[in-house]
Amino acid sequence: MSTSTNDTTPEAAAMSAAEFRLCLDRLQWTQEEAAIFFGCTTRTIWRYANDGGPVPRPIALLLRLMCAKHNPLTPEQVAGAPIIIEG
Asked: How many distinct helices (H) and strands (E) make up the chain?
């Protein structure tokens, strides 16, 4: 098996519970706000944050992108208000 610098494997997208919690903290989101944003229950978010199940790849990738930008959303934006991205 060869190794590559291109991390497109499913393992590369895996997100630990600790990383998930760190992203929520950086975004200044509660678990309830994350549940609203991702359209799931707070129990599901709790599972992701406490090693109760794998974080789905799309959620992991989006959280990483959002954390990299350090652009926390307000509770109003999480609840569905329009998001305005400033250049």
From this structure: 6, 0
